[in-house]
Write a structure and sequence with these properties.
With 185 residues, this protein is mainly alpha-helical. 31% of the residues lie in helices and 6% in strands.
Length: 185
């Protein structure tokens, strides 16, 4: 766990301001804050990698996604030797994955620009001025990305039902996972 905690944060291979956005990746460790998110002894490691792509030029999305996965795993291996061998479940998403689930233009995952004047309270609230109309998703608070969108949905559900959020049990197939799983393109 300590090795993972030390790897948490931003990693980049270039100090060039033109390259930093696409050469960097971020490691999140949600189980450091809530160990109950994973089975006993397990950890959840989330890696976010922005890429600068010409969406229309990519003809083979599985191959594109595999190249990005390999880059990230190789980079993590340099920071955490043996990391790849400890993976039980591996899921990844590309812009095409995001597009398949959201129909967002080119699979945009963050909604509004992530500029300081468009973050936090500057985004629309989950509650609207109209009675029984709620907003959820990456256009609202807390912001863009998969986890904030889930939080937005949970907040809307809590407001609608009037009940506090509770943690669901880990699905059996994940709790008993023994081999790496693959997500759709």
């Amino acid at each position: 766990m300590e090795q993972l905690r030390q790897a948490e944060g931003y990693h980049w291979s270039s100090w060039d301001a033109e390259d930093v956005a696409t050469s960097a990746f971020k490691v999140f460790l949600p189980t450091a804050f809530d160990p109950g998110l994973a089975p006993p002894g397990g950890q959840i490691v989330i890696v976010q990698k922005l890429t600068d792509i010409n969406y229309e030029a990519i003809q083979d999305w599985p191959s594109h996604k595999k190249k990005v996965e390999d880059y990230i795993l190789s980079s993590l291996e340099r920071k955490l030797p043996g990391f790849r061998d400890k993976i039980v479940v591996k899921l990844s998403a590309s812009a095409q994955t995001s597009y398949c689930y959201t129909l967002n233009h080119h699979g945009a995952m963050l909604g509004w620009e992530m500029a300081p004047d468009q973050l936090g309270d500057e985004r629309p609230s989950v509650e609207s001025p109209l009675k029984r109309l709620y907003f959820t998703g990456h256009w609202t608070r807390p912001g863009g990305g998969i986890t904030p969108v889930m939080i937005s949905a949970m907040q809307a559900a809590q407001l609608i039902t009037g009940t506090p959020a509770t943690r669901a049990s880990l699905p059996t197939e994940l709790a008993n996972a023994g081999t790496a799983a693959e997500a759709p393109v």
